[in-house]
Amino acid sequence: MNEQGEFNNLTTMDKLVVFSGNSNPKLAQSISKSLKVKQAGILSSKFSDGEIQVKIEENVRGKDVFIIQSTCPPVNENLMELLIILDALRRASAARITAVIPYFGYARQDRKDQPRVPITAKLVANLLTVAGANRVLTLDLHAGQVQGFFDIPLDHLYAVDVFLEYFTEMQMKNLVIVSPDVGGIKMARAYAKKFNADLAIVDKRRNTPEATEVMHILGEIKGKDVLLVDDIIATGSSLVEAAKALREAGAKKICAAITHGVLSNSAVEKLEKSHIDFLAISDSIPLPEGKMSKKIKVVSVGGLFADAIKRIHFEQSISVLFDSIRR
């Protein structure tokens, strides 16, 4: 790569092959378009009993292959499809197989916090490796330690710059970056640094895996615009409770930037009735038609993944994509 950041020897792009599973075809198309490569053909169907059947329709022998598949709902089906595709590519003699997983499911089960529970994130890491992945590329893991569960290289991207570009245009005033819980402090600090804003934390108590109670707000937010940042919004309970507490404490405009919009159960309905004025999520998970809302804006991470894929293919460092992030 020269000083201007341009890639030389572009003729080797013919060794790069991009496939997509069924979890997020729109994002895969965005990535392929940014890379200026045609998405390779793959046939994924099911037997009458529901078993997934896969056939690779392109010659991948000796190629640098990238398979794009989020393990989003339906989680088990998408994960199984990814594993089968990896196995098919390995048996087809691909030179290197990179699993591009914009949303890494099961990452929340990353430790034994109770007796007799699994560490499912480690199990999934093992499954991906055994299936044939030589490398993993993912975005905003729920817990950084998941990287250590892999015995193969893992490249971890961050969505902060994508959201920075979007929210800078909104010209929010007296901005405060807020973490909705203590566990998200590192991510919030990275956003505060990027946005050149103050930092605040919502201290909460988790009563059940899906329900929380706000206890304290650490930081000054009265009369200021706030931006809640987190990696996942699932049921939306934590975010809605945090927004309510922030409004009662005197916050003016309340927006949120959440990387992965799982939006399960009645999350959208909660969002509509909440004090949150605006929610930006990435397209790491496709947003179903039934979950559309005027409060939700989808920001694409296709360009970010395309840059990372190109750098991996040309054996260039991808750290330049997040050099300013100190998690």
Strand content: 25-35%
Number of discrete helical segments: 8
Text of the CATH class of the largest domain:
Alpha Beta
CA(first)-CA(last) distance: 27 Å
The largest beta-sheet arranges its strands as 10-9-8-11-12-13-14
- What fold name goes in the CATH topology slot of the largest domain? Rossmann fold
CATH architecture of the largest domain: 3-Layer(aba) Sandwich
What kind of sheet is the major sheet? 7 strands, mixed
- What order do the helices and strands follow? EHEEEHEHEEHEHEEEHEHEEH
Number of domains: 2
The shape is globular
- Give the rounded overall mean pLDDT: 90
Describe the structure.
With 327 residues, the chain is of the alpha/beta class. It has two domains: 10-158 and 302-321, Rossmann fold, CATH 3.40.50; 160-299, 3-Layer(aba) Sandwich (Rossmann fold), CATH 3.40.50. It is built from eight helices and 14 strands. It has a seven-stranded mixed β-sheet, with helices on both faces. A five-stranded parallel β-sheet has the order 1-4-5-6-7, with helices on both faces. A two-stranded antiparallel sheet has the order 2-3. α1 crosses α8 and α4 crosses α5 (185-195). The longest helix has 17 residues, at 75-91. The two termini are 27 Å apart.
List the helices and strands and how they pair.
Blueprint (H helix, E strand, L loop, with lengths): L15 E5 L4 H11 L6 E5 L5 E5 L7 E5 L6 H17 L4 E6 L18 H12 L3 E5 L14 E4 L2 H9 L7 E4 L5 H11 L2 E11 L2 E8 L7 E8 L3 H12 L5 E8 L5 H7 L4 E5 L13 E4 L2 H12 L14
Parallel strand pairs: 1-4, 4-5, 5-6, 6-7, 8-9, 8-11, 11-12, 12-13, 13-14
Antiparallel strand pairs: 2-3, 9-10
